[in-house]
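Worked example (supplementary).
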Amino acid sequence: MLSVARAWLRQEPRLLAVEHRRFYHAYLWVYLMVLGLYVAWLPVFMVLKAPRLAFASGIMVLVGLLGVLLHRQHHMLMALVLVLGSLTLMTWLASYCFGNAAGYEYYFFIVMAGIHLAPLSGKVRVISTLSLFVAAVLSLMVASQHVSDGFIPVWIMQSFNLFAVFMLMVTFLWRMLALTEHFERQYRQDASRDELTGLFNRRQTLRQAEKWWQDAVPCSVLMMDVDHFKQINDLRGHAAGDEALRQIGRLLNATLRQGDRAGRIGGEEFLVLLPRSGRGEAISVAGRIRSLLASSPPQFAGSTVPVTVSIGVAVSHECESLDDLLQLADRRLYHAKHQGRDRVVAGGERQQEREGESCSLLAAPETARQGDQGEPPAEHGHFADRTLVG
Ligand SMILES: Nc1nc2c(ncn2[C@@H]2O[C@H](COP(=O)(O)OP(=O)(O)OP(=O)(O)O)[C@@H](O)[C@H]2O)c(=O)[nH]1
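After joint prediction of all chains, the assembly is encoded as:
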């Protein structure tokens, strides 16, 4: 029962705008605390022989409940007016009945915080603050100087109210701060991640490459593109294509070392950054990715989706700038595609350029055999070493 209520409260209303999420979660807590306060006040006012205030508390419990319901149903402004209005009224009545030394006037600060932490316009804030100030001054004017209830000394009442106000204020500020941090972290993560694969997105991957380049960290890059991906989409559906990309992302994460970075920089294009790795290491990582894809191809709806990739490898010491490095890896990827796909190219393009498009001298024997760029890869599941190094 309790867990159902908790789940119901925690679940955000649908279509809640991003900027209102913090408001929703923080105020829900505060409304629940105010509701708890009304419930606690009910017997206290009975003991203090203030049946009218106890009755008012009973009404406020219902008003508080309505406020929580409205807030949960996305009528957050209405809930705000209702809860803060009811708290102002109760504060006013209690101050009037028990005098201005019993500590009820402190609750005006909670209302003030409630007004100023809510996403209200400047005009509304100013008007609400002035109205609240007038209400507070009036309550002090009409309240008696000192009222003793006969049962509880005034200082105890004051201490209780001070404690309640402290708790409300601390909860309010703590929740606001915790939620702000939580959402900021989430937004930062959303902004740096690719939603489909969970890998870094293009911007974050390039930013990392830029950082390593500026710090003069020697680095190898793998520019990787899925072969004939359009055919996967066309033959098996977009969902199968998405799932294949997701599983490639998982495979990359599982293959790479702790400090390496893998990002999805285009539809079916990935960039892998290998800091402090030379060409040999980069080629072996690329080979590992190919062999893993061959031995454990993506699965979708109970069937295998055979996938191969072409990879261009470049090493930082080959280039003068990061742009050059990425372009070199891209050119090598292009050559890998051109030579029949499903292979790694880590050099040789200059010689190839000199020799025009005939690259038979540089290509591995399988390359020369396959040669046909338009055909989908024929030997899924069989990993052949197709690495071209200049
Ligand atoms: N399912 C899915 N498809 C995507 C996504 N992003 C891009 N694509 C598709 O990927 C396909 C890429 O096609 P092409 O650029 O022709 O490349 P290809 O078919 O892989 O051929 P080659 O790269 O030459 O081997 C297009 O059909 C895009 O619609 C995505 O996030 N999900």
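Two points are worth noting when inspecting this output. Residues 196, 225-230, 233, 238, 241-242, 245, 267-268, 337, 341 surround guanosine-5'-triphosphate (CB under 6 Å). Strands lie at 219-226, 261-264, 269-275, 299-300, 303-304, 309-315, 344-345, 387-388.
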